[in-house]
Amino acid sequence: MALIVQKFGGTSVGSVERIAQVAEKIKACKAEGHDLIIVVSAMSGETNRLIGLAREISAQPDPREMDVILSTGEQVTIGLLAMKLQSIGVPAISYTGAQVRIETDSSFGKARIQHIDEGRLRAELDAGKVVIVAGFQGMDEHGNITTLGRGGSDTTGVALAAALKADECQIYTDVDGVYTTDPRVVEGARRLEKITFEEMLEMASLGSKVLQIRAVEFAGKYNVPLRVLHSFKEGPGTLITLEEDLSMEQPVISGIAFNRDEAKLTIRGVPDTPGVAYKILGPVSAANIEIDMIVQNVSQDQTTDFTFTVNRIDQRRTEEILNKVAAEIGAREVAGDSAIAKVSIVGVGMRSHAGVASKMFEALSLHGINILMISTSEIKISVVIDEKYLELAVRTLHSAFELDAPEQDADQI
Amino acid sequence: MALIVQKFGGTSVGSVERIAQVAEKIKACKAEGHDLIIVVSAMSGETNRLIGLAREISAQPDPREMDVILSTGEQVTIGLLAMKLQSIGVPAISYTGAQVRIETDSSFGKARIQHIDEGRLRAELDAGKVVIVAGFQGMDEHGNITTLGRGGSDTTGVALAAALKADECQIYTDVDGVYTTDPRVVEGARRLEKITFEEMLEMASLGSKVLQIRAVEFAGKYNVPLRVLHSFKEGPGTLITLEEDLSMEQPVISGIAFNRDEAKLTIRGVPDTPGVAYKILGPVSAANIEIDMIVQNVSQDQTTDFTFTVNRIDQRRTEEILNKVAAEIGAREVAGDSAIAKVSIVGVGMRSHAGVASKMFEALSLHGINILMISTSEIKISVVIDEKYLELAVRTLHSAFELDAPEQDADQI
User: Which 3 state secondary structure label does DSSP give A410?
Assistant: First the structure.
C-alpha cells in the first residue's frame, strides 16, 4: 500500500463526463489499497472565462481580487469530483487550498508555497477517505486567498507529495509519458521509462511542455518521485527521479528537445573592450526581454561579433534597442534572423562520455546542416540551425544516438 | 456619518455593466462620508448553473460538496465588485464568508449563523475601505464551507448589520419599496414609508416576496432597521423597524397581501371524537406537506367537516393520504379545490381598532364575494375566496381601508 498524490489537469476534468472517468480511475486505484490525495485544476476554459470577466471590469484588475475570483475555478472542480466519487461508493472529501492550509507568500497571482499543514489531510486519509485538493491556490498568513500562477496545480501536487512524504506524485495529462523527442517529428520516438529531474528540466525548458518547470524543480529539491501518465489510457508513463539508474545501462542521450520560438540577433563590428557585453545586454534586460543563448565570436582586428537569441515576439523591440546601442558603442551593424530553430540533446549520460558533442556535429554535417550557434551545459548541448533543417536534424540525431531502439518492458508502479 | 450595510441581489450584479452601476452607487454613498459594508449575491443565473453541474454529476449531490461549489458564485461577485470600485478610485476589499469569519452550524445548504467575527471588518472600515462580503455563506467550526440557503444573502446583510451595530441595513432589489398591495392588481397601490417587522413578516409570508422572511425575523430580533430600495432608481424605499410610529396617526391597515399558491381540501362527515384532528393532519405532516389554514366547522349530528389548505403542488398527494384516512376513520368524502385564493389584511393598527374584521367582511359581501375560510392573528385577517374574485377583492379592500390615499413626504436617510 502506497500513499500517492495524483494530479488531473483542466482537460482531464473538462466536462461532467470526464470527471466521471477520472472518478472511475481513482476508484480502481483506491481498490488496490492505496491512500490517495487528488489535486485538480479548474475545468478547461473556466480560468479563461473568469479572467475575461475581470478584464471586462477593469483593464488592470487588482491582483488580490483576481486571485479571489480565479480560485473559484478549482473550488468547483473539487466539489464535483468529491460528489462523483461518493456517488460511486468511494468516500471522498474536498479541500480548498485555504482549508488544507497551504500557506504561501503574498505574491498574488504567482505566490510561492511556504508551508503545508498536513494534519487534516492525514486525518482524512486515516479515516479512509480520498482527499480532493484544489490545485493552484493557497492562502497567505493574513488569510488572503492566493494563486500560484498558470500550471500551479502541478506544483500543488508536488508540494503535497513532499509534505506528506508520498511514495509518488502522478501527473495525469494528455500524453502517455515523456518521449525521446516529439513523435510528430520522429516516427520512431519512444516513451522514456525513466528520466532524471535534471534531464526533465532541460527537456521541459527546451520546449517539451509536458510538465511545469517549477513543479519539476520542486520535485527534484524534495526528491519526490514524479510520474507522467495519460489521463484516459492505461500505461506506466514516465518516472522522473533524482537518481540516475545505475542498474541498467544508462543511455548517453535521453532525449532531443527543440523549439522554433527564438530569433537570433547579431551586432557586428563591436569594439572589443572590457564591459562591452554589458553595454549591449544591459539595455535588453532592462526592457524585460529574456535572453537565451549568447555567443561572442573570436575577436578580429580589435572588433568582435556578438550574437544572442530572444523569443521571437521580442525580436522587433530588441532590434530597436540594439540599433541605439550600436550607435553609442560604435558597432558596425545589427542583423536579426527569425528563421532559426534550436535543437538540443539532453542526457545525464553525457557527463561520463567523451565525444558526444563531436558525434552530434558530425551527424549534422553529414546531412549538410550548418550550425549557427552552440551552447553547452553539463547534461545538454544545444545548437541553433536554419529553421528549414529542423525536422531533418531531429531525426538525424534521434538515430545517431540510438534513441529509435525498441523499448524495454515497462515497469509497473 | 453612519455605518450602513448594503445588500445587492443577483439581478443587481447580474452583468459587468450592472456591477459598474452598483459601484457608482456605492461611490456616491461613500462620498457622503458613510462607512459601508456591501453584501452581494452570485450573478443572476450563476447559482442555477452550478446546481445544474452538480445535478449532472449526481442525482443526490452531497450537501457539503454542494456548498463548496455554490459558494463560488458569490466569491466571483465580491472580487469583481472590489476590482470595479478600486478602478473608480474607491478603496475596497473583498471577504468570503469564511474570511470574515461568519461562523454557522454545520447544516449544509441551510446553515444558521451563530457568530460573526467583526474584528477584521472593523479594521478595514477604520482603514477607510469599503468592505465587500460574500452573502449566503459561512463556515462551520471545523472550517467547512456552508451556505445559508436561497435568499441567504439578505440574512448575511442583516446579521452583519446586527454584529456591527450598523445604523441601517439596506436591501437593494428590483422594487422601490414595500407596497400596500401589488401595483399590478391595484393601480392606486402606494409605497409604504414605514412598516413594522411584524407586519412585514405577515406581508412576506403571504406572498409579497420582497424580502426573505428569515432576514426580517433576524432584523426584528436584533432591532436592525431594514430598508428596501430599488437598485437602479433613486428614492427613500421603505423602512422596516421595530417600533410602531406613534408620532403619526397609525393607519389601521398597512397592506393587503394575497396568493394563489394554495389548494383547499375538505374531509366531510368526520365522526366528531377527540383526537380526530390529529388522525387527519398527522399523516399529512408526516409526508412533509405543509399545512396553512385549518378550519373545523361546527359539528352537526355527531359529525363535522374539516377543511385545510396546502400548497397546490401538494394537492394530489394530500388527497391520496386523505382518502386513506377517510376510510380508516369512517368519514364520508374528501373534496379538493385549487381554484381558490387567499387575501389578507395586515396592520399593527388593528390591535387597537375594533370592527376591522366586520368592515372587511362587509366590503367583500357588498361585491358578492363569498368567504370560504377565515383565519385571524393579532395583526392579520386572512380569507379564502373563489380565485376568480381575487383582483376584485384586493381592490375592494384597498379602497375600503383607505390605502389609496396619496402618500406623505418621503423621509430621507
Answer: coil
